[in-house]
Design goal:
Blueprint: H1 3-17, H2 20-38, H3 47-70, H4 74-88, H5 97-111, H6 119-129, H7 136-148
Helix pairs in contact: 1-2, 2-4, 3-4, 5-6, 5-7, 6-7
Length: 149
């Protein structure tokens, strides 16, 4: 099923359950999908675009969460955390550190990368390989640590 179909189904369930946090997050996802469809970039979201859209939404909420925590706004921080949890349900399962390390080590070996200068080459392949299963910051940190040694 497409993301839009899954979101609409979850939205109906959240309405029946009167879950305000889930409703907020699901309506935000629906809004982003509609924005994409009307932007002229295309009418259909493929799986890669869906993942990218959801990761962007999570990143925005994590940034807001950090700000709210710094400003001691626990009420707003709780709302952001709630929305992040709902949005993450639509992403593929996240890779563990060991699994991510193995994938990146294989990419480094196959590309022949030997120093931090080759980071761009490795990052390009790594982001395509683990799309949606790990955040870009985690991938970059792992690549730096493996190439830095």
């Amino acid at each position: 099923m497409s993301l839009e179909t899954n979101v609409m189904s979850a939205l109906k369930n959240a309405m029946k359950a009167k879950d305000q946090g889930a409703l907020r997050a699901l309506r935000a996802i629906k809004s982003e999908i509609l924005l994409f469809q009307t932007s002229g970039a295309g009418t259909e979201l493929d799986e890669a675009a869906e993942i990218k859209l959801l990761q962007k939404m999570i990143k925005q909420r994590k940034d807001s969460l950090d700000i709210f925590e710094k400003e001691n706004r626990s009420d707003l921080a709780a709302k952001e955390s709630e929305e992040i949890a709902v949005i993450e349900q639509f992403l593929p399962k996240q890779m563990g550190d060991d699994e991510l390390k193995n994938v990146i080590e294989n990419i480094i070996h196959s590309t022949g990368a030997s120093s931090i200068k080759d980071m761009g080459k490795v990052m390009g392949m790594a982001t395509k390989t683990v799309a949606g299963q790990a955040e870009g910051q985690r991938i970059a940190a792992m690549v730096k640590s493996l190439l830095g040694n």
